[in-house]
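In the previous chapter we treated chains in isolation. Here, by contrast, the input contains three separate entities that must be folded as one system, with a combined length of 1015 residues.
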Amino acid sequence: MKKLYIVLLILLLSATMVFAGGAKEAPAAKAEPAKAAAPAFPEKPIKLVVYLAPGGAGDILARKFTDVASKYSKATFVVENKPGAGGIVALEHIRAQAADGYNLMYVTKSIVSKVATTETDIDLNKEYEWIAMLQVDPECVITNVKNKAHTWEQIFEDSKAKNGNQLWLGPAAGGLDHVTAQKIWASAGMQAKWVPFDSGAKAIAALLGQQGVVYVGNPAEVKGNPDLKVAAICYSERLPEFKDVPTFKELGVNGVENEVMWRGFAVKAGTPAPVIAWYEDLFAKVSNDADWKKTYESDGIAVVNWKKDKFNKLVADDLAEAKAAAKK
Amino acid sequence: MDLLINLFQGFGYLVGWEPVVAMTVGVILGILVGAMPGLSPSMGVALLVPFTYKMPPQIALILLVSIYIASNYGGSITAVTINTPGTPSAVVTAFDGYPLTQQGRAGEALGISLVASTVGGIIGTIILIFFSVPLASLAVRLHPAEYFALAIFGLTTVASLGGKNWPKAFIAALLGLLINTIGLDPISGVKRFTFGTYRLFDGFALIPALIGLFALSEVFSRLEEFKFDKEKIEADINKTVWPSFIYYWKMKFTIIKTSIIGTLIGIFPGAGATIATFIAYDFTKRGSKDPDSFGKGNPEGVAAAEASNSSSVGGALVPLLALGIPGSATTAVLVGALMIHDLNPGPLLFTERPDIVYSLFASCLVANGIMLALGLMGSRLWIKVTDIPKTVLFPCILAISIIGSFAVNYSFFDVAVCIGFGVAGWILKKFDYPAAPIVLGMVLGNLAETNFRRAVIMGGYPVFFVRPFSVLLLLVSALSLAYPFYQSYRKKKKSAAAGK
Amino acid sequence: MDTIKYFGKGPGLYIMASVLFFLFAAIIFAIYKSSKKEYFWRLSIPVFFIMTVLGFMVIAMGLPVKGDEVGPAIVPELWITGIILLSVLIIIRTLFGLDEKDPGWGRVGVVGAFLAFTILYLYMIIYIGYYISTLIYLSVSIYSLSYRDIKVIAGLSLGWILVSYVAFYRILYVPLPKGILIERIFG
C-alpha cells in the first residue's frame, strides 16, 4: 500500500516536471536590462544564434559570415544553433537575453512567414532591431526538362488541360515558397495544387521522379543537376548568372516582380546605438568582401546591405502582408 | 571498365598520411559519437563540419563520411554492454545483444556486431559504387503512396516482435505514432496537442525519448530490484571469449541478406537506418528455423541489426551522389559540407570532380577496414564496461543521459522529457509493454502520416490501390501481420493434437 | 462541432481534463476495491491510455480543417481509435485471466529518492552551474548507493567533469550552464 503511494508520487512528480520543464527556463534566462554599453564593444565573444540545425544551407551562411567577419574585426563569433518551430525557439531565446548586442540572430523571410501563421505573442516589429539585410534571393519556378511541360508557356497550357490538378511541389504549406506559388497562380489566372514535402530537397527528388510539374524555390537549387531548369523568376530583371531565364514580367505575368527570400541579421530591440553602429560598420565591410560576393553572386543571389531603418520597414511590410494572406 | 579505373585512382588519392589520419580520426570520433547516448550520427557529423572549412574538400569529406560510417557501429557498443542504444538505429541491436551479455557472452555479441557492421558497410558501399545511378532513378520515382506502404510494412514488424504480448506491443507502437503527431502539423501547419507551449511545436525530440525509454528505464528497474552485486554472472569466464572466423562464416547469408535490405531501405530519402534494422531483424527472425530464440540472445539478431544499419550508409549516399538529394539527416549535413567547398552534389559531380567522388568511394571501403581494426582493439576495452560495478555505473548513466539529452537542443525541456520517458518506460516495462515499438512509432510516424496525406492530395484515396508497388507492399504487410497469428494457431492445434 | 471545439483549448480544455481525470480516478478506485485487486496495475494502465487518448480525441476533433484534403485530425484519430480498441482488448484479456497478476513492487523508495535527487540536480545546474552540481551529484549518488572507494569516486567525478568540459563545451560547443548564482557573483 505504501509502495503504491510512492509509485503514484513518482508518476506525479515526473509528469509535473515535464509540464513545468518549459517554464523553468524562462526565469533562468531573464537577465537584467542592458547596462550602458561599454566604450569598447565587443568585450567578449558574440553569440550568433542560428534558428536552424547545424549543417544546413542557412547554418553554413552564418558560419561563412563569421569567417569573413574575422578578416575585418577581432571580435570572436560563436555560432549557437537554436533550432525548432521554424525559428520561434530562437526568437524566444533572443527575447530572454539582455539587449547588449552580444546575441546576434541570423534571420530570413521565412521567420516572418512563420510568425505570421503561428499563434504567438512575439512582436517582430517592437521586440527586435533588424540591423542588416545582406542577401536577396529571388524566388523562381523550377522544372524538369524530361517533363513534357518545362517552359512557362507549356506549364500554363498543361495547367489548363489538367483543370486545377496540376501538381506543384515544394516545402511545407504556408511557407514562403507556397505563398509565392499562390501569388503566381493568382497573377497568371491559373489553378494548381500544392503538394507539401518535408524539405525542399525531397520535393526536388519528386520533381526529378516526374511526380509533379513545378518546384518553387531559389535559382541555386538547380545546380549540379542537368535535368533541372529554372523556367521563370519572380524578379524585376534577369539575373546575371541565369541570363537565359525570363522574368515573369516578360512572360506577361504581372504582380510577382519582387517575390524574394531575404537573409540578414537582427538583435534584440533596445540594443545601444554605439553597438549597432559597430555592427553596421562590420556589415558594410562584409557585404563588400570579394569572397563573400563571389560565393553568393554565382548562385544568382543579389548581395546587398540594407541598413536598420530600411530593413525594419521591410519586415513590417512583409509581416503585414503575410498576416493578411494567412487570414484568407 | 572506366569505373574500375576511376575507383583504382580513387584508392590512389588515399595514399599519404593526410587521408589515413582523417579516416582514423573520423572512425575514432564516429565510434565515440555513436556510443554516446544523445549524440546521433547526424549531430556528430554536423558538429564536426566547422572543423573542415579549412581542409581540402577530399580530406573534409573523407573525415565526415568516416564519422558517419563508424557512428552506426558505435551505437551497438552501449546497446550490447549496458542495454542503452547509443543511436536510434542500435535499438534493434540491443534486442539480442544485451541478453547475450547477460548470459556472459558479451565477447560474442561485440564481435558479431563489429564484423556484421564492417561487412554490411562494405556491401553497402559496393552497391553504391556499381548501382547508384539506376537505384537513384528508381528512388525518385517512388510515389508518396509507396512510401506510406513502406512505413506500414515497417510497422507490421511489431506483430512478430511482440510475440504473445502482441496487443501491448501494438499499443506501444501506436503510442509512439500518436506522440509523433504532437507539434505543428507538417502538412498544414496547424498546432496539434501543443497545449499552448512553443516547446512542443516540434513535438518531443526522438533522442531524449530514446535515452529515457532505454537507459533511464533500465536504471530505474534495476534500482527497484536493488541487486547490484549479485549481478556477477556465473558464466563470466566466457565473456572474453572471442568468436573465431568459422563462427562468423556460419552467419554469412544472414549478413549478406540483411546488408542488401539495409542498403535498399537506406536509398529511400527519409526512411533511414532505424527502419532498415527493424525490417531486417523481422526478416531474419521469420526466416530462421528457431524464431523463438530471437530476443533471448540469438547472435543472428545482432548480425541482422548491425549489418543492416551499417549498409544503410551506402544506400543513403546513393541519392546524395547520384542526384544531390540527401537520403538521411546525416547526408543532409554532408550536402552542406560539400557546398561550403563550392561543390554541388549531383550527377555533374561525377564528371566535373571524379576525384572527389571516387576518393569518397574508396575511403568508404578503407574506413570500414580501419573500423574493423580499431574495433578489434577497442572491443577488449568496451567489454570492461560490463565489469564496472552497477553502483558506479548507474549514476554515470544518469549523468550521461542528462548531458546527452541537453546537447540535442541545449534545452532543459528535453532533459525533463528524457526523465519523463524514463519513468514511463520503467512502469510500462514492468507490465510487459515493450519500449522498442514506441521508438519505431516515433520514427515511422512522420513518414507514414505525411506520405499518406501527400498521396491523397496527389491522387485521392484510390491512389494506394492503383500503383502496383504500393499494392504489393500493402499486401505483403497484411500477410506479415497475419502470419504470426496463423503460426501460433497452427502450433496450438498441433499441441492440442499432441496432448490428445 | 463548435461544442467540441470549446473543449479543445482554454478553459474548456481544463474542464475536459478534470472530468477525464476524475473519471479515471473513480475507475481505478473501483478496480482497487473490486475482486480484481491483484490486477490493479494491469487494468489501470489501459484505462489510463483510454482516458488520455480520449482527451486527445476531443482536441483532434476541434482542429481546423483547411481545404478539402485530408485534414490534420484524420491520422491522429486513426491512431487513437487503434489505441482504444487495443486497450479494451487488453482489459478483456486481463479480466478473463489471460494476463498474469501484477508483479510486486521492489524498492520503489530508492527509485523515488534517486529521481528526486536527479531533479534537485537539474535545479542545481540552473543555479550553480553544470560543473559543481555534477561533482556533487555523481559523488553523492555513487556513495549513497553504497559504493565506498573514495578515490574512485573522486577520480570518476572529476574525470567526468573534465571530459564534459573538453568534449562537450570546448569541442562540441554545447553551452553547459554556468549557473545564475555563479554568474551573478563573478560577473
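Chain A touches chain B through 64 residues (CB under 8 Å). Residues 22-38 of chain A have pLDDT under 50 and may be disordered. Compare these points with the single-chain example from earlier in the chapter.
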